[in-house]
User: Fold Ribosomal protein L15 from Mus spicilegus.
Amino acid sequence: MGAYKYLQEVWRKKQSDVMRFLLRVRCWQYRQLSALHRAPCPTRPDKARRLGYKAKQGYVIYRIRVRRGGRKRPVPKGATYRKPVHHGVNLLKLARSLQLSSLIRSIKLSEEILTPRGSPNQSTNTERCAG
Assistant:
């Protein structure tokens, strides 16, 4: 069994001790990072290669944090001052997907990161991928 096939099997069994430990450590690690950051390598190299990623210059991967779940209507103390049919505050669903909202958010954050001269700030992340 090759390395990519082994990785695929490990990802299928998410309740195994190896995966539970790995996901717990990565979850803590991602929380320490900023909401938008450049990843040194893909989390799942096998899946990334199936989707067209190659480990060569010019391919970059960014990871962005997005809050999941429904949208809450921003009203003070839940008072909407509308007809009862429009009183919903909590169980609203956003019209766009989480992927689209993460894309829009990443564009906004990347514009803020750019310096006034237009050159991006250099990342201090010198961590390399194993393998």
Observations:
- The beta strands are 36-39, 61-64.
- The radius of gyration is 20 Å.
- Residues 17-32 form the longest helix (16 residues).
